[in-house]
């Protein structure tokens, strides 16, 4: 292929027989001269099997991990007809990159960048292609250091998408392994309408399939798991046919619709989830993962003094460095339900305990807020709130944009993909079309 780039030189176009002869002579000479150092200068493959993400996938058989699995016949493919698109690999802390080799499928990039980042937010360019023609691109002589490397396509070479059989990153890895507490969580609220996959307009089977493709450590739900009245029979007929596939790995909380059950408030919810929703014998509970403490609350009963005292005691006992809470009713929302003051006392307790993140549903849209205090004042030591009510129920319009609201999306169904480490967190809102609709900043825990 043509070598036209604003980066260190890549492979030449010398005829193959001459290349092979020259390589054999050179290797033979090195082995004779320095037998104890044979291979010492070779680039080391550091990307194979590492965690990978992408801006989109064509379908679940073409996930980003396929470009890093070491199998020449599998591949990542993005959504068709959309620019830009990217694929990213986590190399571990302080990786040094000297070479990147790309093997394109027929759907190649005419223009793309190879970039590296320490935090997944700020990127430094290592190489730039402006006239690509597919096949194999072998970028050598690179100099870059960071944790994340991505291939960022800006112009497709075909009418399709971007597709890579392999992305091979060479160099050295740092001596520090990724944090042992690093993990991924999928979250959504307002999920199962009374429909099944037999209806093309039914959304919750699609969000469930997306959630499974992400393959997180576990799943969170932020209430209104089953519409309309959360009967046990409805849980079995609808929710169980989609999100029920990973019920054992789900950590739910109830919403207001769970209180409408004629058999009694939360009756169907409790019968369906059992000890999964009541692990401590109450409709609220807590648990730890890595360096994170999660608090699952029942916002239908924030006026219950017992739950409030439990929350204070639970946070006082916490020894983890990062804290996330999730419940149904958001204190702040730009959607139809708007702000819900019932959550303010709980926010104050969480803020006093230096909590980092609050996840909510109730309003059927996606929204993220800048860090703020319980009174809605922007502050660096505030809580980040995310509304993620697009799990499958009918979307609500954005009505009154609240202060500190940074991004709002209503319409596309999807889930939150939360990436957490011992000290940081970030997230993406991923649509059922496998496209990343929004990416949050990377925050450091308080």
TrEMBL record:
SUPFAM superfamilies: Galactose-binding domain-like, Metallo-dependent phosphatases. It comes from the Bacteria. Residues 33-172 form the F5/8 type C domain. Gene3D superfamilies: 3.60.21.10, Galactose-binding domain-like. InterPro entries: Calcineurin-like_PHP, FA58C, Galactose-bd-like_sf, Metallo-depent_PP-like, PAPs-like. Pfam families: F5_F8_type_C, Metallophos. Keywords: Signal. This is Discoidin domain-containing protein. It comes from Streptomyces flavochromogenes.
């Amino acid at each position: 292929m043509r070598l036209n780039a604003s980066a260190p030189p890549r492979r030449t176009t010398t005829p193959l027989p001459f290349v092979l002869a020259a390589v054999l002579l050179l290797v033979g000479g090195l082995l004779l001269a320095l037998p104890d150092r044979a291979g010492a200068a070779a680039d080391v493959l550091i990307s194979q099997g590492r965690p990978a993400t992408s801006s989109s996938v064509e379908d679940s058989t073409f996930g980003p991990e396929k470009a890093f699995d070491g199998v020449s016949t599998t591949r990542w493919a993005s959504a068709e007809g959309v620019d830009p698109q990217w694929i990213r690999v986590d190399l571990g802390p302080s990786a040094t990159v000297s070479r990147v080799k790309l093997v394109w499928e027929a759907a190649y990039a005419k223009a793309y960048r190879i970039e590296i980042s320490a935090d997944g937010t700020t990127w430094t360019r290592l190489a730039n292609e402006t006239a690509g023609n597919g096949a194999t691109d072998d970028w050598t002589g690179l100099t870059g250091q960071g944790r994340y490397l991505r291939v960022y396509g800006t112009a497709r070479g075909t009418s399709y998408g971007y597709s890579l059989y392999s992305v091979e990153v060479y160099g050295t890895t740092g001596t520090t392994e990724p944090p042992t507490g690093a993990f991924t969580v999928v979250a959504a609220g307002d999920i199962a309408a009374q429909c099944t996959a037999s209806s093309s307009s039914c959304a919750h089977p699609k969000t469930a399939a997306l959630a499974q493709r992400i393959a997180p450590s576990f799943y969170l739900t932020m209430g209104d798991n089953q519409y309309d009245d959360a009967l046990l029979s409805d849980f079995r007929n609808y929710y169980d046919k989609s999100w029920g596939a990973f019920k054992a790995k789900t950590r739910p909380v109830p919403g207001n619709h769970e209180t409408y059950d004629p058999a009694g408030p939360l009756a169907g919810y409790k019968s369906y989830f059992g000890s999964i929703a009541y692990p401590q014998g109450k409709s609220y509970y807590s648990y730890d993962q890595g360096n994170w403490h999660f608090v699952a609350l029942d916002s239908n009963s924030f006026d219950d003094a017992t739950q409030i005292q439990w929350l204070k005691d639970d946070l006082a006992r916490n020894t983890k460095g990062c804290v996330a809470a999730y419940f149904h009713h958001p204190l702040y929302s730009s959607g139809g339900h708007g702000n819900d003051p019932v959550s303010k006392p709980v926010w104050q307790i969480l803020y006093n305990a230096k909590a980092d993140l609050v996840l909510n549903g109730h309003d059927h849209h996606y929204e993220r807020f800048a860090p703020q205090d319980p009174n809605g004042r922007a502050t660096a030591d505030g809580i980040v709130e995310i509304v993620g009510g697009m799990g499958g129920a009918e979307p609500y319009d954005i009505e009154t944009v609240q202060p500190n609201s940074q991004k709002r999306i209503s319409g596309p169904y999807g889930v939150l993909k939360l990436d957490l480490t011992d000290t940081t967190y970030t997230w993406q809102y991923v649509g059922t079309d496998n496209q990343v609709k929004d990416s949050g900043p990377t925050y450091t825990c308080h």
